Amino acid sequence: MLTNDEAKMIAATILKQLGGGRFRAMTGARELFAHNEGSGGCSFKLPRIPGVKINYVKIILNANDLYDVTFGRIFKDEYKVISEFKDVYNDQLIGLFEDETGLATSL
Questions:
Q1: Which of 24, 48, 56, 63 has the maximal Cβ count within 10 Å?
Q2: CB distance 38 to 14 below 8 Å
């Protein structure tokens, strides 16, 4: 089990790999949370965007030092998984995010 500080550090690393502040500005990502699940990770919500069903993303570091990424939708009190990807390399995160959401992470 990770400490809160370790979980926050891993979440910050994931956010940095996605593009940091530019990623948040370009996508409108909000409500970022650090997770103790697996080897740590993060999740965040996306604003409502016409034509985009995904509004929740969860990225967890697994035992292979790769990421498990889940794209979902929260509507009212229901959560629906739209797509899941296992063993994603850090350099694939941006492309995967852009392909699944249709949102650009940088100019």
A1: 56
A2: no
Beta carbons of 8 and 42 less than 8 angstroms apart:
no
Q: What are phi and psi of 12, to 5 degrees?
A: -65, -40
Answer yes or no: are the C-beta atoms of 44 and 32 closer than 8 Å: yes
Q: In the structure encoding, which two tokens stand for residue 9, read together?
A: 């550090």
With b meaning 16 or more CB within 10 Å and e meaning fewer, what string describes 66-91?
bbbbbbbeeeeeeeeeeeebeebebe
Task: Check whether 1 has a pLDDT greater than 80.
Answer: no
Rounded Cα gap, residues 30 and 43, in angstroms: 9
Instruction: Kindly give the interhelix angle for 4-18 and 93-101, rounded to the nearest 10 degrees.
Output: 70
**Closest to 34 in 3D by CA, of 63, 14, 56:** 14
DSSP state of 51: T
